[in-house]
Every structure is written in structure tokens, then in C-alpha cells.
Amino acid sequence: MSSHYEAPIRKPLIIGDKNYHDVTVDVARPVEGRANKQWWIAFSIALAAFLWGIGCVAYTVGTGIGTWGSNKTIGWAWDITNFVWWVGIGHAGTLISAVLLLFRQKWRMAINRSAEAMTIFSVIQAAMFPVFHMGRPWLAYWVMPIPNQFGSLWVNFNSPLLWDVFAISTYLSVSLVFWWTGLLPDFAMLRDRAITPFTKRVYSTLSFGWSGRAKDWQRFEEVSLVLAGLATPLVLSVHTIVSFDFATSVIPGWHTTILPPYFVAGAIFSGFAMVNTLLIIMRKVSNLEAYITIQHIELMNIVIMITGSIVGIAYITELFIAWYSGVEYEQYAFLNRATGPYWWSYLLMMTCNVVSPQVMWFKKIRTSIIASFIISLVVNIGMWFERFVIIVTSLHRDYLPSSWTMFQPTFIDAGFFIGTIGFFFVLFLLYSRSFPVIAQAEVKSIMKSSSETHKRIRDGIAHDTHSHPENH
Fold first, then answer.
1. Burial, 338: exposed, middle or buried (Cβ in 10 Å; 0-12, 13-18, 19+)?
2. For residue 347, what is the DSSP state?
3. 3-class SS at 307?
4. Cβ-contact 406, 393 below 8 angstroms
5. 189, 198 in Cβ contact below 8 A?
6. Alpha carbon distance 119, 278 (integer Å)
7. Is 5 helix (H, G, I), strand (E, B) or coil?
8. pLDDT (tens digit, 9 = 90+) per residue, 35-91?
9. In the predicted model, what is the mean pLDDT of residues 426-455?
10. Is there a contact between 298 and 367 (Cβ–Cβ < 8 Å)?
């Protein structure tokens, strides 16, 4: 039995009559050719949002974070909500790439590059919120434990916020190296196809002298496995540490041991939803429908459905713990979430995160591109509201009734958040025009077992063999 054996019932992962040369041409076309109309439309919308965000950030820096809706009771509101949301999205990229690589899942090969890029770009967006929340972003380097001339000024190693700095910077570093390493054969492919000396020089530099020798491939695979082994526990550790920002406090609704696994499940859930969103856009704007197939979308939807169910169980467990604890403050916090002034956000959270993924049980829905796109957006909205519910509804009713208040976001809050979404898509769309979004070398390695052409030939041979038993 070949190591590439695949059950006959599995659908092809590469459709169309593609050969090795076709894969190279298709993957290089978005980089070498001109952008299509869909790309320009998507880029224009993202750029407009990004520019609006820049304006809001400039106004914030020039005026101060008093322009935000945060107040003395709800000191964390949209900024930390957005921070946790973006960090969560950054999870699935490395998870898809690293974990599926370790488990030798072939369906990862057409989508891992987009997922890894998503991790890098979303962590950049996440980092901006705490930096600007400091009020003096030009002093952001103070969070790093570096020698300084300010005497006793030193970071607080007991603070979970500092643990965030270490966790996220480590995660970003490993993800960046993992992503870059995977790109080396593709950079070399673009280098060899380059027409102009400048382009050739650029991709030659980026490819680090990749020659395609057997030794290169051996080292490439070894390093990829090591990095995947490093990145996998980081996926779990980063959001666990982010949850410590809350779990180590004494605020009712935050002080619970379920938060780490709850946060990790939610992060994977929202991350997969964002990857699905990006893949559906990417296959259209880069004409990659033959490689990012309905089969890929369906598998992603199955993961979303499973992780959505885990998140639903976490919500129920959280309610049970609050009731079983017998602590009246804890019980009130959860009762207030469901029936208090922010009941609508709790309802949105439950509907989007618990109910909407369950429609994926129907094959017709999970194999529909439009339905998948809508549900992935709904899940992302729901996960944002999950963070909003955790943060704002817990803070607006603290131990002192005299400090109870409501949070009202300003247009600067909204503009900053929308600006980061625009920045994320600007980076992603520019990336799709500069770097190969499909790992062409890896896709070629599964063509003999997973392409539509191969399956048709195999089925034809099987049919002939069945028709002529003497051939056995």
C-alpha cells in the first residue's frame, strides 16, 4: 500500500484536469498577472476602512483616550474586546497549519498559507489596542523588560498583562518563522519564473538561496515539523494566558477556572470562521476555485460546528458553576448578563455562537458557499459579542452600586475597530498579490492521490478490472 493511499469515497481535493505545470501557473498568476475586478473592489473597500481608522487613531493620539467611550467604571471596553477578538482569530491559522501538518492531513495544503498569513496580520491588529490604550503609545517599549536609565522603572512580572506580552510576542515570532519557512520553495519558484532583474533579485533574496536539492527538502521538512511541534502548544498557551487577564482578578464573572479552556475553544472557533471567510474571498479574487474546493469549505464547516458545540457547552458550564458556587455576586453577574441592560448582547452571543453553527448538520448548507460565508460572518460577530459580554457586563455592575454605569461607544471606538478590519484586509489582499497563497509544492505532492484526474483514472482502472476478472 502506498503512503498516499486514500479511501475511494473521499472527494478530490484538486478539481479540473490539472498537471504540475498548471499548478505552478495558477499559483503564480495572482502574483505575476494583473488583479481582477473583484480584487480591486475588495481592496478599495478595505483601504477606505483603513484610512478611516488612521484618522481615528491620529485623533486619539492627538487628543487622548478620553475620546473613547471608556469611563472610570468600565476602564476596559471596546479596546480589550477587540484585542481578545483579534488574538482569537490569530489562533486558527497556526492551528490549521501546525496541527494538521503533524496529523498529515492533506486538506491543509491548499489553505494553510492563507491561514498562516491570517495569524500574522491579526496579531498585528490585536497588538495595537493595548498599545494605544496606554495613552502614550510612544512609550510602549516600557512593557518589555529591557535595561533602562529610569532607575527603579521595571516591568511587573506578577501581572498577567506582562505575561500577555511574552505569550503573544513568542507566538508571533514562531508563527512568522513557520510561515516564512513554508514560503521558501514558492519564493524560489517565483524567482525562477521572474522576467525582470529586479523581481528576480527580490525573490532570490526572499528564498534564501533555495536550490531544490534533496538536502534542501530534507531540511525543509525537518524544520517544518520542529516548528509545528513548537507552535502547537503555543496555540493553547497564548489564549490561556490572555484569559488570565480576567481569571486572576476578583471581578464576578471573571474569577473562574473554566476561562482558559473556554477562551481557547472560543479562539479556535472564531479563528476557523475567519479562515473560512478569507478562503471564500481568496478563491474568488485569485481564481483558485480548483484548489480551494467545496470539500475544503465543508471540512472547515465541520470544524466550526464541532468547536461551536464546545463553546455552547462552555457557556452552560459557566452558568452551572455560577449557580453551584453559591456566591451571590457570581450568580448576580450571570443573571445580569442574561436579563440586565445588556441582555441583547447576551442574546446575540448565544444565537450567533450556539445556534447558528448547528445548521451545519445539514450537508446542503455546509456545502453551500453563500451559506458558509454568511455563517462564518455571523460566528465572527457572535464571538465579538462574547468578549463584549464578558468584559462590559461584568464591569458595569461591580461591588459598589454608586459606581454602576453604562458604556456608550463613541465614533472613535467604532472607527478604530473598523480601521483594524480594513488594515487586516489591506495586508491580506496585498499579500495575495505579492506572495503565493497556495503552497504549490505541497499541493503537487498530493496530486497523484487527491486530484480529480487521478481519481477518474483510478476509477476507470478499477472499473476495467472489475469488468475483466481475468485481469486479477
1. middle
2. H
3. helix
4. no
5. no
6. 12
7. coil
8. 888 889 989 999 999 999 999 999 999 998 889 988 888 888 888 899 989 988 887
9. 83
10. yes
Q: What's the grid cell of residue 176?
A: 512568522
Measured distance between the N- and C-terminal CA atoms of the chain, rounded to whole angstroms: 17
Under DSSP, is residue 36 helix (H, G, I), strand (E, B) or coil? coil
State how far the alpha carbon of 374 is from the alpha carbons of 267, 296, 366, 378, in Å.
Answer: 19, 16, 11, 6
Residue 204's contacts (CB-CB under 8 Å, 6 or more residues apart) are 191
Residue 452's contacts (CB-CB under 8 Å, 6 or more residues apart) are 12, 14, 15, 16, 17, 18
Kindly state the cell numbers that stand for 298: 465543508
**342-392 pLDDT tens trace:** 999 999 999 999 999 999 999 999 899 999 999 999 999 999 999 999 999
3-state secondary structure (DSSP) of residue 211: coil
State how far the Cα of 383 lies from the Cα of 164, in Å rounded to an integer.
20
* pLDDT over 60 (residue 472): no
Mean of pLDDT values over 273-279? 88
CA distances from 44 to 19, 38, 170, 228, 279 (A): 35, 10, 33, 35, 19
The DSSP symbol for 32 reads: H
Closest Cα to residue 288, out of 436, 471, 396?
436
Of 166 and 239, which is predicted with more confidence? 166
Q: How far apart are CA 242 and CA 259, in angstroms?
A: 10
Other C-beta atoms within 10 Å of 221: how many?
A: 11
Please tell me the total number of residues recorded for the chain in this structure: 472
Sign of CA dihedral 186, 188, 193, 195: positive
Can you say whether residue 451 is alpha, beta or left, with left for phi > 0 and alpha for psi between -120 and 50 degrees? beta
Residue at grid coordinates 484610512:
51
In terms of Cα–Cα distance, which of 406, 472, 376 is closest to 70?
Answer: 406
DSSP 95: I
How many CB atoms neighbour CB 423 within 10 A?
A: 22
Q: What is the spatial distance between Cα 156 and Cα 87, in angstroms, rounded to a whole number?
A: 22
What distance in Å separates the CA atoms of residue 131 and residue 166, rounded to the nearest whole number?
A: 14
**Residue indicated by cell numbers 482569537:** 88
CA atoms within 13 A on the CB side of 118: 29
Better-scored residue on pLDDT, 467 or 335: 335
Question: How do residues 177-189 score in pLDDT, each as one tens digit?
Answer: 988 998 898 889 8
